[in-house]
Amino acid sequence: MTQNTPLIGTALVDKVKELGNLSKEEKARACGYYTQTKNGIERVNMMKFLNALIDAEGIELDSTSEGIGRGGRSASYRISVQSNGNLLIGSAYTKKMGLESGDEFEITLGRKHIHLKQVGAFDEDEE
């Protein structure tokens, strides 16, 4: 099986733009994203082509886990009351706020809202 050296980076982007109205498969083939089997059958590798194009454009599709653990869930800014009546504010929120274990809050209940005020934090309203 033989394989061409595929284009990457700006060379790939420039070549795709140059190829204009060709189909995706023809563009992938022209940019080197194909293999040829022993029997002479040519196979276009669309997934590698599209991934290389995404990388060349600098588009970040993977979630950013900041190098810690496996990433986990991202904050959706919605929570539900659990079956035991608790509201759980997950680590995605506490990390985003820079909170640490042991930080304390005062809870103020409104009609349909909960306000948390960090104990010892400077309050702009108290000037």
Give an overview in words.
The model has no long low-confidence stretch (mean pLDDT 81). The protein starts with a strand and ends in a 9-residue tail after the last strand. The chain has four helices and five strands; from the N terminus they run E-H-H-E-E-H-H-E-E. The chain is of the alpha+beta class. A hairpin with a 5-residue loop joins strand 2 and strand 3. It has two domains: 2-57, no CATH class; 72-127, Pemi-like Protein 1, Chain: D.
What is this entry, summarized?
With 127 residues, the protein is an alpha+beta fold. It is 29% helix and 14% strand.
List keywords for this structure.
single chain, 127 residues, alpha+beta, Pemi-like Protein 1, Chain: D, three-stranded antiparallel β-sheet, two-stranded antiparallel sheet, 5 strands
Which spans of ≥5 residues are poorly predicted at pLDDT below 50?
A: none
Ends apart, CA distance between termini: 75 Å
Structural class comes to: alpha+beta
Please provide the count of β strands: 5
The overall number of domains is: 2
Shape: elongated
- β-strand percent reads 5-15%
Largest sheet: 3 strands, antiparallel
Number of helical segments? 4
Spatial arrangement of strands, main beta sheet: 1-2-3
How much is the average pLDDT?
Answer: 81
Helix content: 25-40%
Question: How do the SSEs run, as a string of H and E?
Answer: EHHEEHHEE
Tell me the radius of gyration: 26 Å
InterPro entries: AbrB-like (IPR027360), SpoVT-AbrB_dom (IPR007159)
Protein name: SpoVT-AbrB domain-containing protein
Keywords: DNA-binding
GO molecular function, one term: transcription cis-regulatory region binding
